[in-house]
Amino acid sequence: MEIQHFSHHHPLILRSVHPRQIYGIKCSACSRSCLDLIYSCRECEDFHLHKSCAELPPKITHHPFHPFHPLPLVLNSPRYACCGCGKWDSGLLYLCKDCNFTLSPDCAVKPTTRYEFVGPGKIQHFLHKHPLALVEEDDNVLCLACEKYCPSESYSCHHCPSFKIHRTCAEQLPRAIQHFSHPLHPLILRAKDSRFDQPCVACYRSDNVLTYRCSMCRIEMDPKCALVPTQYLQLGN
Ligand SMILES: [Zn+2]
Ligand SMILES: [Zn+2]
Ligand SMILES: [Zn+2]
Ligand SMILES: [Zn+2]
Ligand SMILES: [Zn+2]
Ligand SMILES: [Zn+2]
Ligand SMILES: [Zn+2]
Ligand SMILES: [Zn+2]
Predict the structure, then answer these.
(1) What is the CA(74)–ligand 4 centre distance, in A?
(2) Number of the ligand closest to the Cα of 187
(3) Rounded to whole angstroms, how far apart are CA atoms 203 and 200?
(4) Residue 116: count of CB within 10 angstroms of its CB
(5) Looking at the domain covering 59-109, what would its CATH class be?
């Protein structure tokens, strides 16, 4: 199979990488080494793209987290914090230069996805860097999303004992809201980052773990204040 990628002037062919070759081959979009299926240029010795990187859309418009401007795909980016999930990454990013608004490919392409299953009862949730395991009927769960103690099924992190979140909260917490007090931009849910996070604009507390944030106005709201009855953005799911 042959494709024409926007970042390269020659056509690229799909092929698989031999396990012995993987250390020599780097993706020209994300700079990570290549496994499995890649697109390679026949004419240039060292132009390769992961199949997954090559198939990302070159531009996203009307994204629910940033509906105002188009978000073009940027290759070989230095480290950035994703405005959609708060995670630090490098390589590929969707960027609105005017607003300095950044989205990781996952958040850009799958804004309604909150987690993926990585094993029986185990998920990788966008709010946390480690996998989370399902615990049934734990009666001492302080959920860091709704901040209520209630005995119910929850997900917890093996490495971080305080990271617990109700199953229903993990599955249903809206990723973006349109809050009545900040009608200009969506507020986007993510884990707090001490490098730039601020107190809640409504109640001034700062001990919350999760935050709804407008990265352009640098406004933060804890989930309790953010989720008082308001109109959620329609994100499907
Ligand atoms: Zn890649
Ligand atoms: Zn080429
Ligand atoms: Zn992200
Ligand atoms: Zn913008
Ligand atoms: Zn909860
Ligand atoms: Zn953890
Ligand atoms: Zn608050
Ligand atoms: Zn704003």
Answers:
(1) 15
(2) 8
(3) 6
(4) 13
(5) alpha beta
What are the contacts of 54-57 at 24+ separation with CB within 8 A?
A: 54/3, 54/5, 54/12, 54/29, 56/92, 56/105, 56/109, 57/109
From the number of C-beta atoms within 10 Å of its C-beta (0-12, 13-18, 19+), residue 64 rates as: middle
Give the distance (Å) from ligand 1 centre to CA of residue 222: 35
Q: Where are the domains of the chain?
A: 2-54, 59-109, 115-172, 176-231
- pTM, full prediction: 0.85
Which residue has tokens 């987690």? 115
pLDDT digits (tens, 9 = 90+) for 151-206: 788 999 999 988 999 999 999 999 999 999 999 999 999 999 888 889 999 999 99
186-208 burial string, b = 16+ CB within 10 Å, else e?
Answer: bbbbbbbeeeebeebbbeeeeeb
Strands (E), the chain: 2-3, 12-16, 37-41, 48-50, 59-60, 71-81, 88-96, 101-103, 115-119, 122-125, 132-138, 152-157, 164-166, 176-178, 187-191, 210-214, 219-221, 231-232
Cα(78) to centroid(ligand 2), Å: 24
Residue 14 in 3-state DSSP?
A: strand
- Distance from the alpha carbon of residue 198 to the mean position of ligand 8, in angstroms: 14
User: CA 209 to CA 222: how far, in whole Å?
Assistant: 8
